[in-house]
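Technical note accompanying the year-one report. For the benefit of new consortium partners, we illustrate the data format agreed upon in the data management plan: each record pairs a sequence with a structure-token string. No post-processing was applied to the example shown here.
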Amino acid sequence: MTRLLVVIAVLAVIPAAAAAALRDRTVVGPVSAVAITGTEVGYADEYRRRCYEVRRWDVATRGDVRIASHCFVSTSTGSGIAAVSVTGGRELWLTYIGGNIREWSLWTKRGTAHAKRIEFKAADVDGPAPIVVGRAWDDSLPYAVGRRIVVLAPNGARKFTLDAPEQVSALSAHSRGYAAVLADGSVLAISPTGRILGQTPFDPAGAQSAVLAAPGLIVETAEGLEIHHGATVTRIPLPAGARFLGFSEGIVAYGTGRQLRLRRLESGKDVLFRTLAPRFEAQLGRRGLAYATDRTLGFATWADVSGSV
């Protein structure tokens, strides 16, 4: 199928004012997942009914390539691509299909190799996903299956594997290591080599996501963000229902309603960055910010992000 693409050039060398007019591009179908690492944007869209594709858009080279596609039969509780992750030319993605019992498959691919399924789990449709795709960092693609945490390098080799005390519900790689939110609400801080640095308790409804970055362990809760640095805890209230969308270089991205907002931690300055559709996806990385809504995929350079706040 011929793809209708409104191609844009969004390089870091473009001034923010010029990039603002060139940022968005149109894709064939509704975007169901988006992730960013460096200048690589991984995303999934439905290009025809019940057929989905995983793609990688490199905003530095302007290349946009199809990584894989999946077509599903009709099921009572749906099917699709739930999450993607990308770095170093390797992509991970999670598919699901089924009725009361939902089948989950984790896939990966790099370069011209065939897509490979590396994990499979079946679970009750009303329960949490048994496989979690984590946020990637420059040289790390983390994922979890139940209690088991696995971190892949871009070449596909395992950097390490460890068993968490409880099932993992959210996972991320960042500049100082890894953070895993567990089913009991606690958060594991993990070193770059896979050593558990500590476990911070929260009630089961408390911690929702976390990253281990320069300021400390940044934890998303229902009330906002908590930054744990040694014995010091700094609380940053966010609007009710806000979603944490990433942290880089002292800037937090979060979503509330249709608003994609940025906050600089040092000054407390908080600005509206974009107004999007009510159910938008976004992720902040160290080279910029990727966002998606329906059939629009966008990227803002780091100069645009940092200059806004």
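Partners are asked to follow this layout when depositing records. Helices lie at 16-20, 302-308.
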